[in-house]
UniProtKB/TrEMBL annotation:
Residues 1-20 are annotated as: Disordered. This is Sec-independent protein translocase protein TatC. Keywords: Cell membrane, Membrane, Protein transport, Translocation, Transmembrane, Transmembrane helix, Transport. It is found in: Cell membrane; Membrane. It comes from Tessaracoccus oleiagri. Belongs to the TatC family. PANTHER family: SEC-INDEPENDENT PROTEIN TRANSLOCASE PROTEIN TATC, SEC-INDEPENDENT PROTEIN TRANSLOCASE PROTEIN TATC, CHLOROPLASTIC-RELATED. The gene is tatC. GO terms for cellular component: TAT protein transport complex. InterPro entries: TatC. It holds the Pfam family TatC. The chain crosses the membrane at residues 41-59, 98-125, 137-159, 190-214, 226-242, 248-268. The Tat system comprises two distinct complexes: a TatABC complex, containing multiple copies of TatA, TatB and TatC subunits, and a separate TatA complex, containing only TatA subunits. Substrates initially bind to the TatABC complex, which probably triggers association of the separate TatA complex to form the active translocon. The keyword Iron-sulfur does not apply. Part of the twin-arginine translocation (Tat) system that transports large folded proteins containing a characteristic twin-arginine motif in their signal peptide across membranes. Together with TatB, TatC is part of a receptor directly interacting with Tat signal peptides.
Amino acid sequence: MSASTARVTGGGRFGWLKPPKGGPGGTMTLIDHIRELRYRLTIAVLGIVVFSALSAFFYEDLMRFITAPYEQAKADVMAATGGAATIELTNVGVVSPFTLAVIGCLLAGLVLSTPIWLYQIWAFVAPALLKNEKKYVLVFVGAASPLFVIGCVLGYIVWPRGVALMLSFTPQGLDIINLLDMVDFLQKEVMIMLVFGVSFVLPVLLVMLNLAGVVHGFQLAKARKFVVLGSFVLAAVVTPTVDPFSMLALVLPMTLLFLVAEVVCRIIDKKRGITEESYAEFNPELDVGK
């Protein structure tokens, strides 16, 4: 293979193992952007897989941690019903234990590898930033990583309360046994943890997009009421238990973090000298006043 051909195809057989260098000033062709995305996704997935494999060595402790919300929810329901409720957590089917192990380890791998895949997100967007703005990578990863973990922890805390609320609708005085499928229980637990985690990271992504010149503070201000309304709609759709407690636990932090992101974006715009009027002047085709 010639040098020119190797350059076009990505450096030969193992070209996918490294990102494209790009042209002067960090410019890239469409093919280079696709190669860059492939590389970043590969590194992110490898990080998740490696940490998932490592978490398998602590499988028993991991399962105790995962089932703790069930124990908490069961204790709350038993206390509310005077011990009259019957609740059992079960594995249904031959492959359920294996599915349970895979989901649990992948969740642990995703959380533990947070700095890795967050850095890959930043690295994919970084070529669009100015040279002096690329230094914010540590700030982005340093802020987004704990926010994602905090969001997951909050979802973990909220989950048993939602489960207890849903189970409290079981009619009393009837011989009804609540059999909870362990795999289904874990899938919903993972979903609510990830929803909370990603929601906590979104404001940091907004600031990153502001640095890249995609969004501006005044635009976020105009979208504020729609974001609040959208937060309620999103919480109603994605929270597995659709109980008011879980919804508010998601909406309130999302709204607060969005307001913080708006303030930060306004500060960045002010330092750059970007205002709504100046933006409209340089973008006459956009009616930003609406």
